[in-house]
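#lab-general

N.A. 3:47 PM
ok so I finally got the sequence cleaned up, no stray characters, all 240 residues accounted for. can someone with queue access submit it? mine expired

B.Y. 3:52 PM
send it over

N.A. 3:53 PM
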Amino acid sequence: MSMNVALSDYKEGKLQKSTLYKIPESMTVPFEEIHANGKEVVNLNYQLQESQYGIYANEYKNPCISKQGCKKADVLACVVDDKRKEIKSLVFDVKSNISSFSNDLTKENAALTAIKEIRDFIDQIHAALLHKKSFMLYYLDEGFQEQEKVAIATKNFECEKFLAVADFLESIFKESSIELPPLVKLKMQTILKPYIGEIEKIRNFADKMLIINEKPYPLMVIILEKSSESVYSATVTINI
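B.Y. 4:20 PM
back already:
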């Protein structure tokens, strides 16, 4: 776990990817996702007490896993309490606007876009939880108790739109499905057939719940607010 870092590097977000950093004191560590037309910023406000320290990593993965094709979530943040032997961990990924797909699910691959976005997000969180276990095992072996949280940071999260995707995916394969021209319906069935098994995942996602290896994870939604013309940001408190 890296410690040879100036405090200014933490506070300015000058940290390498896939590296575990120990947060020695209360501070705010910014995570930034930069795009051609702007950026999203999640400020991690570590609030540490005596006998506590933080852990931070950007796109952390198990060092033994090949980088090629390896899924990762954007951020892993933890607080470790050595005295009480407790750990609180948060894994989250930034999706600029996961609700941005069209309301007309028959157009512009809207349904397919939504399904893939949700599926890929869940896969990233699942992978991040596995990567986290690679070092968390040592804490658990020493008797620490861990409280896990997962989250998504996004500009908009419309539950009803995700439910509509699940309903659409389910109905498109029924005899008495929504009324569509035959050729349109056939095209949609061909495109969406590989994703029939995603219906329950999408419904759970709409209810802010992920089921990973039969374990339920309540989904924390971090809403990014506009803070300047090209920047959307949010602040998350990291503490026990």
